[in-house]
DNA sequence: GTACTTGCAAAGTATTTGCAACGTC
DNA sequence: GACGTTGCAAATACTTTGCAAGTAC
C-alpha cells in the first residue's frame, strides 16, 4: 500500500512542485507530530535535527505551500503564533479543537459534529458552507478529575 | 434607560479601571462599527478622528483591557492581524462568523447554534465547555445570486 | 501624594522578501 | 542552460514594553 508521504508527493507533483529533501523532512516532521500543534519555529527546530542546513524561510515557504494544497491547515489559537495542523486525508472539513483553560492542552475531535448546524446555516442564512473552524474552550476531563486548581 | 457605554463604564469601575477619554473614544468607535471587524490599526485611525493625540500603544492597551473584561473578543481570520469584535451584552458564548470566500465579507450569526453540539462534547469527551469559536467559510447569498465569478 | 494612565520611542516577535548560489532535468 | 528551490540576511509587519510626564482623587 502507498504511504502517506507518497500520496503527498503526488499531490505536489500534480501541482507542479517537487518533493525536495527539505520539503520531505518538513512533511515527515508534521507526520511524526500529528497530534501536536507546531508553530513554524517548532517545525524548524525539529526539521533541523534531520536536515541541519535548512533555513527558517524554507520552512515557512513549505508550510505555506502545504496550506495552499490543503494538506495542512494554518491555525491560530490566540497567542501570537500560527500553528500548522495536518488535515485528515480526504476530509472536506477541518477537525475541531478542545482547548483546556486549566492545563492548556489542545485535543482534537476528528468526527464532524457540524452536519446539522451547517444545514441550518445553509437554509436560514443562504450561505453555502465549504469549510469550518470550531474551537471550544473549557475544562478537560483530566483537569476536572484531578481537581486541578493550579492556574498555569 | 442606561446606555451601553454607561454599563461598560460600570464594568470598568467594577474592575478598578477608569473610563478615560481615550478609552471612551475607543469604546465608542467599537460601538459605532459594531458590524465590522476592525484591526487595532483600524481602531487607532478611527479613534484619532475623535481624539487626535491618542497613541497606538494606548489603543492596544485598551483593546487588551476590554478583551480581559470580555467586552470584546480578539479574533484572527488568518491574515496576520488581530481583530476586535464586541461581544453581545451578557452572552456567555462568542457569536459565529460566516466568511465569504468570493467577496471576503464577514457576517455574524448572533443566535447560538451549538447547544446540542456542546452537549455531545460534554458527554462524549468529558470536556466542560465554557466558550466557543466557530467560523464558516463558503459562499454568501449575494455572491451566489449575482452569479459572481470574479475572483477577488 | 499615590496610583493609574498616557504618548513616544525603542524593543521584541513573527513572518516575508531579495538575491545569489545550487540542483535537476 | 532554464527554472524551480534554497539559505542567508535584510526588510517588514504587528504588537509590546520602558519610562518620564500627565491626571484624578
Topology:
The structure is a homodimer of 152-residue chains.
Chain A lengths: L3 H11 L6 H12 L5 E2 H11 L5 H13 L3 E5 L5 E5 L9 E5 L5 E4 L5 H11 L2 E12 L1 H5 L7
The structure holds a DNA duplex (25 and 25 nucleotides).
Keywords (chains A, B): DNA-binding, Repressor, Transcription, Transcription regulation, Zinc
Protein name (chains A, B): Fur family transcriptional regulator
Family (chains A, B): Belongs to the Fur family.
Class computed from helices, strands and strand pairing of chain A = alpha+beta
- CA distance, first residue to last residue of chain A: 44 Å
Largest sheet of chain A: 3 strands, antiparallel
Whole-number mean pLDDT of chain A: 93
**Could you tell me the radius of gyration of chain A in angstroms?**
18 Å
Percent strand of chain A:
15-25%
Low-confidence runs of chain A (pLDDT<50, min 5 residues)? none
Family (chains A, B): Belongs to the Fur family.
Keywords (chains A, B): DNA-binding, Repressor, Transcription, Transcription regulation, Zinc
InterPro entries (chains A, B): FUR, Fur_C, WH-like_DNA-bd_sf, WH_DNA-bd_sf
Protein name (chains A, B): Fur family transcriptional regulator
Verbal overview:
2 copies of one chain form a homodimer. By secondary structure, chain A is α+β, with helices and mostly antiparallel strands. The first copy, chain A, is built from 6 helices and 6 strands; from the N terminus they run ααβααββββαβα. Chain A has helices at residues 4-14, 21-32, 40-50, 56-68, 115-125, 141-145; strands spanning 38-39, 72-76, 82-86, 96-100, 106-109, 128-139. In chain A, the strands form 2 sheets. Chain A has a 3-stranded antiparallel beta sheet with strand order 1-3-2. Chain A has a 3-stranded mixed beta sheet with strand order 5-4-6. The longest helix of chain A is centred in the middle third of the chain and has 13 residues, at 56-68. Chain A starts with a helix and ends in a 7-residue tail after the last helix. The model of chain A has no long low-confidence stretch (mean pLDDT 93). The A-B interface holds A 74, 76, 78, 98, 100-101, 107, 109, 113-114, 116-118, 120-121, 125-141, 144 and B 74, 76, 78, 98, 100-101, 107, 109, 113-114, 116-118, 120-121, 125-141, 144. The structure holds a DNA duplex (25 and 25 nucleotides). Chains A, B: Belongs to the Fur family.
